Amino acid sequence: MTPLVSFRNVSCRLGGKDVLRELSLDIEAGETLVLLGRSGSGKTTALKMVNALLLPSAGEVRVEGTPTAAWDAIRLRRRIGYVIQEAGLFPHFTVEQNVGLVPRLEGWPAEKIRARVHALLEQVELPPAQFAARYPRELSGGQRQRVGVARALAADPPLLLFDEPFGALDPVTRVELQRQFLALRREIGKTAIFVTHDVREALLIATRIALLHDGRLDVLATPAEFLRAPGEEVRAFLACLDPQGIPA
Amino acid sequence: MTLALWNEIVELTVEHVVLVATSMAIATAVALPAGILLTRRAPLQRWVMGFANIMQTVPSLALFGFLIPVPLLGGIGKHTAIVALVLYALLPVLRNTLAGILGVDRAVRESAIAMGMTGRQLLWEVELPLAARTILAGVRVATVATIGTATIAAAIGGGGLGVFIFQGLASVDTAQILAGAVPAAFLALLADGGLGWAEKKLSPA
After folding, report:
1. pLDDT for the residue numbered A248
2. Given CB atoms, is B113 within the 8 Å cutoff of chain A?
3. pTM of the model
4. Residue A90 and residue B105: Cβ atoms within 8 Å?
5. Does B126 reach chain A within 8 Å, measured CB to CB?
């Protein structure tokens, strides 16, 4: 079976800098691959190549077997859910309009969109009666992020991309949303690529972790393997779990 | 106040409003699409904004004068006045269109593209609605300024309330100057209030 997403010797130069170097990586259907790394390690760049927000300078990224450069970018993007930090909700749309956006672009009938939006809002625990008519500015950070997730799921895409979605949330809300993410994944079993710099988050939600360092793939491992993996960068990240000198 | 004077005030006020409305309609019709285009062509921004800035620094009386000998655009009369007023009104509308669209949150724009919006959908559904208030603020500033500048149009036979002001200046008749200046000031306040209200009505982002 062809992998859902496949990076083949992908390099990317942005503004004269090699952000990504010869990345090769397959993502199988059903898994949650976490791209872990420091700021500037290339993880967000790699993510944006999947929905053709960026194209490789060399090599190719294949989605469902077809290189992203050969996809109609609009078609490709409507098949991929995308969630970013601070959610990127449209401030002039209500929650209902935000969540229903891709189905509307896809020309679904109004009744079907409405039913879908309401089901999704229930799923992310935002009762539609209370939240559907609100504007993003009337929501808390955690609620906005859940709307972002519902919006990404709206047209039932086979693949979801997350770019540090919980990065700007307070620690308590963050843990809540991570739990919800896991519950949602058990429920709907979608493939996800998830960017984070938080090793704790990576170990919690990943089926596999790809550690990027200076634009290169450093380690590719399951969470259990990752804990025992050799290498300086792995150790640097694992050290965050147990900072010396700070009592637990 | 005689009835004849009263009628003349009304007549010239209407003329003034038509002059301003025509100029603003043309200026907006040019500057809005130009501003949108400029957001897609970054290297052009400096040149076009530079031109619009220079137009703004030319003293209005001089600009009206310069236009008189220009073929097609120039001469004596209303259309020359309109050309000059349009040149003045371009900058605020252009600048605010640019600022409004470029000011749309990067994350919002990126999500719109990542959701699979086409360029046209991005413009009509995201960029223009979110920039609408800023753009309208530019139209408001330009309209109020044009109402003032349009009084000078009378110097080249453009008509409007400036007719009173120039006559009054020539005959040292303060009452006649006021007959032009007071209605012009009222028009400016009215336009400012009306467009300001419309600005607030637009969905706050």
Report:
1. 45
2. yes
3. 0.85
4. no
5. yes
